[in-house]
Amino acid sequence: MTRIEAFDVRSDEVTHFEACQRDLSVSIGLHEESLTLDNLGECRGADAVSVLGIYPVDHVLSEALAERGVKFLSTRSIGYDNIDIAAANAAGIRVSHILYSPKSVAEYTLMMLLMTIRRMKLILGRGGIQDYSLEGSDGRQLSEMTVGIIGVGRIGSTIARLLQAAETKHSRIETVLGRS
């Protein structure tokens, strides 16, 4: 039976992991803590490890996983900048990540940006207590701002197109490839 060890497991993920375990006949160990050198013992004999895209998986961790028999590393996030792919591959570990719609993530980012510059936390908080005063709730206009985008992959370039439609000045900064 295939064995997977999942780290950084959130409470909202547990039922999905349990369904996978049942429907796919795999064994999945669920761990709330992050994968570290201290808890690698949990991975001994596992075929695969699943992590969130929060904590780094460097060459030291990749080699330690390979020594314990792990052949596959999956991140439950869109990005995988936290994983040293070359080191994982050199250790014989294949790496994957999940796919999201770049438009969905870009639109969510734009929504959060608009909510921030329009002071929605303050406005919604006041609305919750039926205070509809305007003092301190003046927002800014997106079209009069300059926005920096760090990383212009599929998501970053989609954000840039949305900002362009809003007539916003924006700077694209690509840190990985060293181009701007």
UniProtKB/TrEMBL annotation:
Name under which the protein is recorded: D-isomer specific 2-hydroxyacid dehydrogenase catalytic domain-containing protein
Keywords per UniProt: NAD
Single GO molecular function: NAD binding
Superkingdom, natural source: Bacteria
Residues of the D-isomer specific 2-hydroxyacid dehydrogenase catalytic domain: 10-156
Pfam families assigned to the protein according to its UniProt record, in alphabetical order: 2-Hacid_dh (PF00389)
PANTHER family per the UniProt record, alphabetical: 2-HYDROXYACID DEHYDROGENASE HOMOLOG 1-RELATED
Keyword Ligase: no
Gene3D superfamilies: NAD(P)-binding Rossmann-like Domain (3.40.50.720)
InterPro entries in the record: D-isomer_2_OHA_DH_cat_dom (IPR006139), D-LDH-like (IPR058205)
